[in-house]
Amino acid sequence: MFFRIAKITLCAIAILTGFAIIGLFTRPLLDAAKVSDSKSDSVIPQNCGAGIAFAMLGGYRTLLADFVWIKGYIDWERQDLSGCVSAIDLATTLDPDSVFYWRFGAGIIAFDTPHWILRKLGTSDPSRQAAVKRRQGIQAIKFLDKALTRLPNNTELILQKGQIAISIGDFKLAEECYAKVVSVPDPSVFSRRIYAAVLERNGKFAQAKEILEKILGETEKDSPLVPILKKQIGTLQNLIEKTSAKKADE
Q1: Which of 118, 234, 236, 245 qualifies as a cystine partner to 209, CB 3.0-4.6 A?
Q2: What residues contact residue 3 under an 8 Å CB cut-off, 6+ apart?
């Protein structure tokens, strides 16, 4: 029993020591990545020193990225905008192939940070609130564009970009993203329905109707989705007829 406790204690000490050593490596990088809340561009400094530091990390970069992400999660709980976004950017720099970091990082930037900023500003002005949400959404999209230069065909990243585009009212960009998402083999019903909704929002009623009709044809007759799809298809048919009638009158 004594040896078992001693073994567990030694393992715990080794883990804590490892994190302390990792902290010594990452602290200068995190400090270099820090930006003020007023800045909105990439937080990773493009300088020679940072590049040399990253190169020296070698195979430990993935492990360090995990540690940085944990640090970012702590900052997220504290609603520390600068610390959290800096950690997200640094984690993706250390491990640029991690779809998880890119996708969840973009979600935090787009959907969480606006609330932190608005709470700090203490504003109830709807136009100001909308402007902050749009600004952070645009920054999240830029962040995902960095990811997509490395992982251009990743459906998860494209889907996240499309969702953020919808949240800031950029339906043209959303349509471009969802067109790519549904072009993969066996796209989900969810993504196709969202794509149809975006097409409807963009005035492409016939194209949206065609997508929903295809989904309806693939859906079990006793599915609760059937009446919803039929109602949406009927709405689109009415919009198509109204559009045709309007064009005829002109």
Answers
A1: 236
A2: none
**What is the separation, in whole angstroms, between the first and last Cα of the chain?**
90
pLDDT digit string (tens) for 109-124? 999 999 999 999 998 8
Kindly list the structural domains of the chain, giving each domain's residue range(s) and its CATH number in brackets, ordered by start.
2-202 (1.25.40.10)
3-state DSSP assignment of residue 83: helix
In the chain, the percentage of residues whose pLDDT exceeds 70 is 76
Q: Any idea of the CA torsion for 121, 127, 132, 133, to the nearest 10 degrees?
A: 130
Q: Is 58 helix (H, G, I), strand (E, B) or coil?
A: helix
Q: Are 90 and 44 in contact (CB under 8 A)?
A: yes
How many other C-beta atoms are found inside a 10 Å radius of the C-beta of residue 187? 14
**Cβ contacts of 95-104, under 8 Å, gap ≥ 24:** 95/61, 95/62, 95/65, 95/66, 96/147, 96/150, 97/150, 97/151, 98/65, 99/147, 99/151, 99/154, 99/156, 99/157, 101/65, 101/69, 102/143, 102/144, 102/147, 102/151, 102/157, 103/156, 103/157, 103/160
69, 83 Cβ separation under 8 angstroms: no
